[in-house]
């Protein structure tokens, strides 16, 4: 059956409604202008009537008769006098017009004393920078008129500058970064530190505009953002920075907030991301936020050099191929990722040559997250093994065509330790936490247009996509749900976004019947006694049952490899076992973590995952 088109109001209703609203607003404005005298007279009549009513109610009852008589006499006289009614109407209208006039007191013109004082002292401070000895008509001179130099200004309730336009002489070298920076430093100091300012230099008009920026919202929790496939929300920024807003829910409330959206995939010009920041500034949180968004359309591989278990909530989730915390696991996974990128490239090229669409398993986005690669590089160098960063070359170079995206997070001071490939190919950059203008320029490739401040909340920083502008950024709160310090609302928000677990998490076991569990626990305790680890029992009491069992298993693991000779170790297969998750029509369950884990345990006998993780943390601390 042929489908009937929607009524026009529904198909392009948005534009029509907007136009109609605009027309209605214009008509209302014009009508208000034309009818202004009538409105004033009506308002005046209302006020006169109210005054008459008040007078009547205030008059004592015994005098009301006399008042009524007086009013009636006046009406009679007016009626009898020639042109009396006409004159009375004119007088009444005039009185109403006078009473109905707009009585809002005009805003006081010009600044008050303290504001004038501020403007004058700022003017005097600028004189050495903007004056020239041989200038015949100086705009800036000691004791000169600040009114000419500051054509517009605004103060906040605390009496500090909120907005300021500064005129400067044409001879000022506004094209030189150092000259501008000098002025910006001075203005930041004079206008009050601890606030963020945006400086807009209008070189054509010789104007500098200074705006104080409001703090970015820190109360936005993780949630399903309304974005297209291939779009990732890094965080939120100023409304002037971007042309789009995202509808968000905040408890019961709904609001629109301007996002910083990063586009990945085949058409992206900045297909990989580098996140930098001081420890504790929220880099892992940003990676977790991106991972939760990426999981809707793709598969993830997470390699965590921080070793603090920040990604434990993702282990075994549908779409999460692996979460690696040890060096061997990291190397194995990244080797697989490099091979998978090559496989995808070949598949895509073959499909193109045959004039067909690339196969689904070469198009499904694959995300590689590498948190703190520097820690692994250090370990690998100490152990004489390959630097995991070198395995990122292929995904970084060819990832775009193969729908492979790399996200690297590193500490700001370790920027130089990152490999060339990482630095060259991560054209999307984020810096979180306090950073100097020089550090920001080195990391982002351009200075921010706003003044960095020393005290910022976690998740606050700057983002730059390719050669675009530097945006202020606040990452949505996406805490580790297993962290005790996480609030219940934020924990639930993250848990709601996690896909179901399809494979047992690494180290997890199927629920053990209660009896069997008790037997295992007895076994464990006797084993600990044998090992002379009785003091450990105190600590273990605090853990729940499963944790105890897990610990026992790790102890067993620690014992076994120690018995092997190094020759035996070399004989063991170190062959990587790729954890492929096929995404074509016949999905195969994630080739569970077990295989690579076993390979990892075999190839790295003296350092099982947790030990390696602790070592990494110790190395880096
Ligand atoms: N956007 C955010 N909103 C609210 N809290 C945040 C945000 N980002 C981080 N935090 C909080 O700040 C703390 C540190 O965050 P996170 O662990 O992500 O930092 P990090 O830079 O990875 O630090 P480290 O390198 O020490 O792991 C955590 O308690 C986290 O909940």
Automatic annotation (TrEMBL):
Residues 554-608 are annotated as: Disordered. Gene3D superfamilies: P-loop containing nucleotide triphosphate hydrolases. Signal peptide: none annotated. The chain crosses the membrane at residues 65-98. InterPro entries: FtsK_dom, P-loop_NTPase. This is FtsK domain-containing protein. The keyword Nucleus does not apply. Keywords: ATP-binding, Membrane, Nucleotide-binding, Transmembrane, Transmembrane helix. Residues 586-608 have a biased composition (Low complexity).
């Amino acid at each position: 059956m042929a489908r009937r088109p929607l009524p026009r109001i529904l198909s392009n209703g948005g534009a029509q409604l907007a136009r109609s609203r605009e027309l209605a607003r214009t008509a209302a404005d014009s009508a208000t202008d034309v009818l202004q005298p009538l409105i004033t007279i009506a308002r005046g009549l209302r006020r006169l009537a109210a005054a008459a009513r008040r007078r009547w109610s205030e008059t004592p009852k015994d005098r009301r008769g006399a008042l009524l008589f007086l009013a009636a006499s006046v009406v009679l006289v007016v009626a009898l006098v020639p042109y009396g009614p006409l004159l009375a109407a004119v007088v009444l209208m005039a009185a109403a017009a006078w009473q109905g006039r707009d009585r809002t007191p005009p805003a006081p013109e010009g600044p008050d004393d303290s504001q004038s004082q501020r403007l004058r002292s700022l003017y005097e401070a600028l004189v050495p920078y903007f004056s020239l000895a041989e200038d015949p008509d100086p705009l800036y001179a000691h004791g000169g008129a600040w009114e000419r130099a500051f054509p517009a200004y605004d103060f906040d309730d605390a009496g500090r500058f909120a907005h300021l336009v500064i005129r400067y002489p044409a001879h000022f070298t506004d094209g030189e970064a150092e000259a501008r920076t000098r002025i910006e430093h001075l203005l930041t100091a004079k206008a009050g530190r601890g606030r963020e300012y945006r400086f807009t230099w209008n070189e054509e008009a010789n104007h500098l505009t200074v705006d104080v920026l409001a703090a970015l919202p820190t109360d936005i929790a993780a949630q399903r953002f309304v974005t297209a496939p291939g779009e990732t929300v890094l965080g939120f920024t100023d409304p002037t920075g971007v042309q789009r807003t995202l509808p968000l829910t905040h408890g019961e409330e709904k609001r629109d907030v301007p996002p910083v959206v990063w586009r990945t995939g085949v058409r992206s010009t900045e297909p990989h991301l580098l996140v930098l920041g001081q420890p504790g500034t929220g880099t892992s949180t940003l990676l977790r936020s991106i991972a939760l968004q990426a999981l809707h359309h793709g598969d993830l591989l997470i390699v965590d050099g921080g070793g603090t278990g920040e990604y434990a909530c993702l282990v075994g989730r549908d779409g999460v191929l692996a979460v690696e915390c040890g060096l061997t696991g990291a190397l194995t996974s990244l080797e697989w990722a490099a091979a998978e990128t090559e496989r995808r490239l070949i598949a895509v090229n073959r499909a193109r040559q045959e004039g067909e669409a690339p196969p689904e398993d070469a198009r499904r986005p694959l995300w590689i997250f590498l948190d703190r690669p520097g820690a692994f590089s250090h370990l690998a160098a100490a152990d004489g093994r390959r630097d995991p960063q070198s395995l990122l070359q292929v995904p970084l170079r060819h990832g775009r065509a193969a729908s492979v995206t790399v996200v690297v997070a590193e500490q700001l001071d370790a920027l130089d330790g990152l490999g060339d490939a990482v630095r060259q190919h991560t054209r999307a950059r984020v810096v979180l936490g306090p950073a100097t203008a020089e550090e920001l320029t080195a990391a982002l490739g351009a200075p921010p247009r706003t003044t960095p401040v020393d005290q910022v909340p976690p998740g606050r920083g700057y983002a730059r996509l390719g050669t675009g502008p530097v945006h202020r950024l606040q990452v949505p709160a996406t805490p580790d749900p297993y962290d005790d310090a996480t609030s219940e609302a934020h924990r639930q928000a993250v848990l709601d976004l996690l896909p179901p677990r399809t494979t047992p998490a690494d180290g997890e076991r199927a629920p053990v019947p209660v009896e069997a569990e008790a037997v295992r626990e007895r076994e464990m305790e006797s084993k600990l006694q044998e090992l002379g680890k009785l003091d450990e029992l105190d600590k273990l009491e605090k853990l729940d049952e499963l944790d105890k069992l897990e610990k026992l298993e790790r102890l067993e693991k620690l014992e076994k490899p120690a018995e092997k000779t190094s020759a035996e170790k070399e004989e063991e297969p170190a062959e990587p076992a790729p954890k492929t998750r096929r995404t074509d029509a016949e999905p195969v369950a994630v080739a569970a973590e077990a295989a690579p884990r076993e390979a990892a345990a075999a190839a790295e006998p003296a350092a099982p995952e947790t030990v390696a993780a602790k070592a990494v943390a110790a190395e880096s601390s």
